[in-house]
């Protein structure tokens, strides 16, 4: 565009080349190519939403290209706009001067008159010279049916005229320029392009494959130094495309060739499938790129229907003979390899997530489920959190972004960039129909999810495959081991309908003939797999599925020995079991009923308003080991008890002593701790073997307000993934009104005492570990503390309780307990038993409960709990 601007005292026309870049993460390669042709960038930020994940990614792309960056805050006319907050974010995250930000509204036009003058004043002109040897950078290309390949170029040095002969520095092939001009925005022929200008050329190229993006073009018979160019496009998602009718293969081939003429970043190779016939294996930059390509392909008039297989990512498999195999199609991976598999590697990405602080907990849970490793976690301001994770690409390749938007009510922003390959425990999951593998449905999954995915796949396929005249056996197998099976029964044809009478041998003969015919059809018959089955397969493979956990809860009435047994099933970790709203403080003990259940020992007290139990099957073994270790240590009264030298400051055991704590109604008190509270028996460190290091924490977790004491010479202390796992299993404290700070301290101290760190003072451990047990409002409170104000654990503990459990709260709870009435409890308990008895299905095989606990009398003076 042309803009008239007063420059050096006179009005001057300026030619500005503006490039609008896409914001989606899949097209970051397009952004990087556009930035290579520019000298500056306008960083546009929403005044209401603030800095998003895409803003962070695009800023660093411009920063790495050494471009002048002008921040523009748009949509200031909205009622929720907060330009000052956005300026503070730009300063804290990018170190941009808030006074340089332009306040605009594209809707009302306010402030737009400042943008173009700022571009001319702040962004330097192109550095090229028209007198230097001609060099031109190829930015992009597309195919025109009449003119052929049209290239978008940027003139770096020299000048280009119509009729010049140019040469490619990459291929050495020569071309003659038949047309040259600028885009305004349509193609306008100018006959010449000068240094610093961006325009188009038509040079007679026959296909876009000849126009290599990032190539340097120069005049023939001249020697130049090629420009740095771009990194080649790296395809990260692969999918198979097959025609629904085998006779449409040539039409599909022609349609793909036409589309790739305008999109050179798509890689295409031919492949053959025993189930789907001839097709193509296509590589894309991302999921959105793949979806756009599929939609454009389906719009081709010559095609009736196209089958797309499960999107996959490239894996690397290493074998014992030293060979490496890169697999883009799971069907190419041998199920029973000749050599032993040594290592598996999968691609990872660095994901950037910006969310409201209220959703930190669910997002951390989601990322942990997707095998994410937390790299960075901070708060942009009091309302928004910034997180960075390293995650396997496969875990985000289908529905991660949709699920992230769902759990954050649409307020999350997400962006990622490619990272390195990392070792992983991967297996190939085959789908068999009547013993024959369906290579189009083969997939590579993590070993921990193989059983769940296999079961779900065969169940879904059973619903979507049409019944035949013969029986269909659907199996999921890892190598030669079948892990799941479903049987689709045959359609029944009554061959005896025409026999109204006669000898029974005639009927038996007809039945035997039908039986033989079905066996023959099963051997030679084919099973058609509808496209809907492939779509459902996508949902199964990447959908979050919760395992069932069955519990048997024992509720004991306060004044007699009667008990109410409540059966609950289908617990998932995001579901709370609400027993009643009127139960006072009584205890609830859950224990495994069988040795093979591996369930943990949980001691839980019912709250007056709500009780919830959250158990994950994959965490049961870890929790069981922790519970057994704690129980053994608590019951070992014969062990020698040694005093703690620094217990005067810590007073952790006082926290567990009900006589020395503030009055509250939902504190879990260990009933079998026989050792004195002021001394602890010798403990062995409780070690847990985790499948992977999800958090990768190694160092300290203290914040600016905390000054942990220095470690003694030679002493080592690392915050390991085991500690983080246990903190998350016990639950992070978010500072919400319903959260119990005393229960959190009890759980935190219990976890701390489970580990042995010789030579390290306890203050050093607790002050470093406690911030990692907080989330949400609690983290904001910790960040607001006076810097360098906390040096011992007692100060931090007292400040924590003063903030989240003030004395007024204990007075209110004491009044509620004193006003307790036995009739209310009895009626509530009965209603609970009736409700749960009719609403919950019976348990299958995972039953928790205890029936031999002696009832304890209730002591009203001690908050309704009798302590041994």
TrEMBL record:
Reactions it catalyzes: GTP + H2O = GDP + phosphate + H(+)
PROSITE patterns per record: G_TR_2
Residues annotated for GTP binding in this entry: 20-24, 74-77
InterPro entries found in the cross-reference section: EF-4 (IPR006297), EFG_III/V (IPR035647), EFG_V-like (IPR000640), EFTu-like_2 (IPR004161), LepA_C_sf (IPR038363), LepA_CTD (IPR013842), LepA_IV (IPR035654), P-loop_NTPase (IPR027417)
Tagged with keyword Metal-binding: no
Molecular function, one GO term: GTP binding
Compartments where found: Mitochondrion inner membrane
Major site of localization recorded for this protein: mitochondrion
Segments forming domain Tr-type G: 1-127
Ranges where the record places region Disordered: 634-663
Gene Ontology biological-process annotations: positive regulation of translation; translation
Keywords tagged on the record: GTP-binding, Hydrolase, Membrane, Mitochondrion, Mitochondrion inner membrane, Nucleotide-binding, Protein biosynthesis
Residue stretches of biased makeup (Acidic residues): 646-656
GO cellular component: mitochondrial inner membrane; mitochondrial matrix
Membrane topology value: Peripheral membrane protein
EC number, UniProt record: 3.6.5.n1
Similarity comment: Belongs to the GTP-binding elongation factor family. LepA subfamily.
Functional description taken from the UniProt entry: Promotes mitochondrial protein synthesis. May act as a fidelity factor of the translation reaction, by catalyzing a one-codon backward translocation of tRNAs on improperly translocated ribosomes. Binds to mitochondrial ribosomes in a GTP-dependent manner.
Protein name as catalogued: Translation factor GUF1 homolog, mitochondrial
Species per Swiss-Prot/TrEMBL record: Capsicum baccatum
């Amino acid at each position: 565009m042309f803009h008239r601007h007063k420059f050096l005292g006179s009005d001057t026309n300026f030619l500005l080349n503006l490039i609008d870049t896409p914001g989606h993460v899949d097209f970051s390669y397009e952004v990087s190519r556009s930035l290579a042709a520019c000298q500056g960038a306008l960083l546009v930020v929403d005044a209401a939403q603030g800095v998003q994940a895409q803003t962070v990614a695009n800023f660093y792309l411009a920063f790495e290209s050494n471009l002048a960056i002008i921040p523009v805050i748009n949509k200031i006319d909205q009622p929720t706009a907060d330009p000052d907050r956005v300026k503070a974010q730009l300063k804290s995250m990018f170190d941009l001067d808030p006074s340089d930000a332009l306040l605009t509204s594209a809707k009302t036009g306010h402030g737009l008159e400042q943008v173009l003058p700022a571009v001319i004043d702040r962004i330097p002109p192109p550095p090229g010279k028209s007198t230097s040897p001609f060099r031109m950078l190829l930015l992009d290309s597309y195919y025109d049916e009449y003119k052929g390949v049209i290239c978008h170029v940027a003139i770096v040095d020299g000048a280009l005229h119509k009729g010049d002969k140019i040469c490619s520095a990459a291929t050495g092939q020569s071309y003659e320029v038949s047309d040259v001009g600028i885009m305004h925005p349509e193609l306008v022929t100018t006959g010449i392009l000068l240094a610093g200008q961006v325009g188009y050329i038509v040079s007679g190229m026959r296909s876009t494959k000849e126009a290599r993006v990032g190539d340097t073009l120069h005049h023939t018979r001249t020697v130049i130094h090629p420009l740095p160019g771009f990194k080649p496009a790296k395809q990260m998602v692969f999918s198979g495309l097959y025609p629904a009718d085998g006779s449409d293969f040539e039409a599909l081939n022609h349609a793909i060739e036409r589309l790739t003429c305008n999109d050179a970043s798509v890689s295409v190779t031919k492949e053959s499938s025993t189930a789907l016939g001839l097709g193509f294996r296509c590589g894309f930059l991302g999921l959105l790129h793949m979806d756009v390509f599929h939609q454009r392909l389906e719009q081709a008039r010559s095609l009736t229907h196209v089958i797309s297989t499960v999107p996959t990512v490239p894996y690397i498999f290493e074998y014992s003979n030293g060979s490496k195999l890169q697999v883009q199609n799971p069907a190419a991976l041998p199920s029973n390899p000749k050599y032993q598999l040594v290592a598996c590697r999968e691609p990872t990405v660095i994901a950037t997530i910006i969310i409201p602080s209220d959703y930190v907990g669910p997002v951390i849970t989601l990322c942990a489920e997707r095998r994410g490793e937390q790299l960075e976690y901070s708060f942009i301001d009091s309302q928004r959190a910034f997180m960075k994770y390293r995650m396997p690409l496969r875990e985000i390749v289908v529905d991660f972004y949709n699920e992230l938007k769902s759990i954050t009510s649409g307020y999350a922003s997400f962006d990622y960039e490619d990272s390195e390959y990392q070792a992983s425990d991967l297996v190939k999951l085959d789908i068999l129909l009547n013993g024959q593998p369906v290579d189009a449905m083969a997939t590579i999954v993590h070993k921990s999810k193989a059983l769940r995915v296999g079961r779900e796949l065969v169940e879904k396929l059973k619903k979507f495959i049409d019944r035949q005249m013969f029986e269909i056996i659907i199996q999921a197998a890892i190598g030669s081991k079948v892990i799941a099976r479903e049987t689709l029964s045959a359609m029944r044809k009554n061959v005896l309908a025409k026999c109204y009478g006669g000898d029974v041998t005639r009927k038996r003969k007809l039945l035997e003939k039908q039986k033989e015919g079905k066996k023959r059809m099963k051997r030679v018959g084919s099973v058609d797999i509808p496209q809907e089955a492939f779509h459902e397969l996508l949902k199964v493979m990447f959908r979050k599925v919760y395992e069932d956990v069955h519990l048997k809860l024992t509720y004991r009435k306060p004044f007699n020995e009667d008990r109410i047994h409540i059966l609950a099933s289908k617990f998932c970790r995001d579901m709370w079991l609400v027993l009643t709203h009127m139960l006072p403080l009584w205890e609830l003990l859950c224990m495994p009923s069988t040795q093979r259940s591996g369930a943990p020992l949980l001691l839980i007290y019912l709250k007056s308003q709500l009780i919830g139990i959250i158990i994950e099957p994959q965490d049961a073994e870890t929790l069981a080991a922790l519970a057994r270790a704690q129980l053994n240590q608590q019951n070992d009264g014969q062990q020698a008890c040694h005093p703690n030298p620094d217990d005067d400051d810590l007073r952790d055991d006082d926290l567990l002593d009900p006589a020395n704590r503030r009055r509250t109604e939902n504190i879990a008190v260990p009933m079998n701790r026989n050792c004195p509270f002021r001394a602890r028996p010798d403990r062995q460190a409780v070690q847990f073997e985790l499948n992977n290091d999800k958090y990768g924490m190694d160092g300290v977790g203290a914040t600016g307000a905390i000054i942990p004491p220095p470690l003694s010479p030679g002493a080592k202390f690392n915050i390991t993934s085991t500690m983080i796992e246990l903190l998350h299993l016990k639950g992070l404290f978010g500072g919400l009104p319903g959260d119990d700070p005393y229960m959190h301290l009890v759980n935190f101290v219990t976890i701390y005492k489970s580990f042995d760190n010789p030579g390290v003072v306890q203050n050093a451990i607790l002050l470093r570990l406690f911030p990692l047990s907080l989330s949400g409002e609690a983290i904001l409170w910790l960040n607001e503390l006076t810097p360098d104000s906390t040096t011992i654990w007692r100060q931090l503990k007292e400040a924590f309780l003063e903030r989240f459990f003030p004395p007024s709260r204990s007075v209110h709870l004491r009044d509620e307990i004193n006003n307790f009435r036995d009739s209310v409890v009895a009626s509530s308990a009965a209603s609970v038993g009736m409700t749960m008895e009719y609403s919950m299905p019976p348990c299958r095989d995972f039953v928790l409960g205890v029936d031999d606990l002696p009832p304890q009398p209730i002591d009203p003076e001690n908050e309704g709990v009798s302590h041994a």
